[in-house]
Amino acid sequence: MNQDALLIRYLDHLEINRGRSPGTVNSYRLHIQRLAEYLAGIGKTLTAASSEDLEAFAGLHLHQKGVMARSRRPAIAAIRGFYQWLSRAGIIAANPAAHLVYPSMGRKIPEAMPLKSVEKMLMQTDLETFIGVRDAAIIVLLAGCGLRVSGLVAINEGHFFTEHVQDGMESAFLRVTEKGGHDRILPVPPEAWLMVRAYLGHEDMQAIDRALPNGDRVLFCNTRHPGKKGFDNCGESRRLSAWGVRRLLVKYGRLAGVPAQYCHPHAFRHLYATELVEADTALVAVQQLMGHRSLESSKVYIHLAVRRLRDAVDKGNPLAKIRTPTSDLVPVLRRPTP
Prior knowledge:
This protein is mainly alpha-helical and 338 residues long. It folds into 2 domains: 3-88, Tyrosine recombinase, N-terminal domain (DNA polymerase, domain 1), CATH 1.10.150.130; 115-303, Orthogonal Bundle (hpI Integrase, Chain A). Helix content is 49%, strand content 6%. It has 14 helices and 3 strands. The chain has helices spanning 3-17, 22-41, 51-64, 69-88, 115-123, 130-145, 149-153, 190-200, 242-256, 265-278, 283-290, 295-299, 307-316, 330-334, and strands at 160-164, 170-177, 183-188. It has a 3-stranded antiparallel beta sheet. Helix 6 runs antiparallel to helix 8 (190-200). The protein is globular and about 70 Å long. The termini are far apart.
């Protein structure tokens, strides 16, 4: 069996037997194809690779290609999984990737955007236009629900549902599908739900064919699709892409004077988690709301939740209760920057 056929069999195994998402399957395919190209360059095939060959590819070769340690981990995971499958299927006698190790690296602490930055970006949306209302709805859902961009763009109108609670108040929820194809239910803040309703009720929405084969409708639409015209520009073709979301965040961030490191979807997600932790939300609840597989992923936000500790120190530290040479300068330090 040639290399291409082996790879196809393995990818089918990942998708059908292991239940991996299409994104994961495609990522593994690319990593193994790059390994096959590297091996071909040294006169070997995938099934003839040695442990030394795999270590050289995953280490020095990828490093020379400019791949950072964090980005080499998915490649190593793909290689380990592929050779484990080859070994278990009896296609190779021994697993050369059995002792292939992941690169060591420090844990990256995520950077949450300031609340004021969200407000500034929202103020740049023109609510007199359809695009402005759409973009405001996108921003408030990112900030109010902590969505990954993949989950945001995959939302259909039918993924929302409402319940009436005390005093007849309407409470909205969102079923979102994200990383690994896992679903979770999220409460939608009333501010975000009102913005989504304004977007769905906009008069320009009526002219857009968002209908899907299952009877549902795409939520966030692109206003033009260069590859589709006429009757083809409908349904799934109208779905706004992740790239489109990133582009609009950069646009509003630039208009609002927000630093570039905050003008991406994940900065909103970090803000959401940080605010939950600062509100004394139990870590198990944070894990569920964020869609983390491991509680360790949620614990990292404890490092960002420092405002309560700062307020406690400001009120209770001994220096605040006596006069020091710098006491008169403290109000200046606390003065908001323009």
